Amino acid sequence: MAKVSIIGAGMTGATTAHWLAERELADLVLVDVLEGMPQGKALDMFEAMPIIGKDVEIVGANSYEATKGSDIIVITAGLPRKPGMSRDDLLTANADIVGKAATETLKYSPDAIYVVLTNPLDTMSYLAMKMTGVPAQRVIGQAGVLDSARMRAFVALETGVSVENIHCYVMGGHGDEMVPLTRHSNIAGVALRDYLPADRLEAIVNRTRKGGGEIVNLLKTGSAFYAPSAAVAQMVEAILKDKHLIVPAAAYMQGEYGLRDMFFGVPVMLGRSGVEKIVEYELDAGEQDLLQKSAAAVKETHEALKNLVKL
Ligand code: APR
User: Fold this and answer.
1) Probe residue for ligand 1, chosen from 79, 98, 218, 301 as the CB with the greatest number of ligand atoms within 8 Å
2) Is 88 a pocket residue for ligand 1 (Cβ < 6 Å)?
3) What angle do CA 127, 85, 97 make, to 5 degrees?
4) How confident is the model over 92-147, as pLDDT tens digits?
5) Global pTM exceeds 0.85
6) Ligand 1 pocket: which of 32, 37, 115 to mutate (most atoms <8 Å of CB)?
7) What sign does the CA torsion over 7, 13, 14, 18 have?
8) Which domains does the chain have, with CATH numbers?
9) How far is the CA of 81 from the centre of ligand 1 (A)?
């Protein structure tokens, strides 16, 4: 059985474990700084396995030794947003936490692939790559699967068509400047732009961009966790099963889309070695423009990180 360790057993971490356990893909380890909490959640979840008929070991720990020999390390440790906060506001607090999680886990799992969820996730992925020194291919940030899923859900609500027929692609940073691609997105092959009136499509694009904030404002004490963790589970599955699945995710840019030395949301092919390929879409001038604007915002957060931490 493969092994997946999840650092941060809070809302997203524990729910990631839940989705993964249901898939019976890997034994799971939950690590958190809070004493007893990861152990309690892990034991509780493990006790559910006979009911759902899955042979998965789930353990909780407060130290990193338990993560030894992991195939994948998921990092969700850190603070979530509160109303009025942007994801970038989390940078200072979360850089410390993610840096430690990445370097400590590397000691016990030198070959692991990192999936980063902690926000601001493009920059946290960059930090994890720099601090561990692992090849870029082995670090992936989750955001695009979630942003695309939000858009798909809103299109389904609008049209009444099955979510399975709705394919949406959201590129760029995981912030208000993200780039929902309305020309590439489609319902069973029909471009969204042709399917929906322009004003309805614009409303969906706007709701997608602010999707995370909508949930933060409702929850008030934290941020979204069901859909973000479901997105991580899909990525972990694609890696462990070597599916060569193309999803939007944050990957290290080395000239793709004209970008360098930063993590950014682009379509990637996921397989057993991590990011197997970055797919370059043909973008028109308008899409290029939006993408570059989003990249500029993400680059700024990377620069802020470099002022905080020596990388
Ligand atoms: N090591 C391990 N766990 C830690 C550490 C650390 N150094 N510091 C904090 N944690 C744990 C907290 O104890 C908490 O249980 O991280 C967990 C975070 O869980 P939540 O507060 O429930 O936050 P969550 O909603 O899961 O969001 C975590 O994911 O989506 C992003 O923006 C979100 O950055 C946030 C992260």
Assistant:
1) 79
2) no
3) 30
4) 989 999 999 999 999 999 999 999 999 999 999 999 999 999 999 999 999 999 99
5) yes
6) 32
7) negative
8) 2-141 (3.40.50.720), 144-308 (3.90.110.10)
9) 10
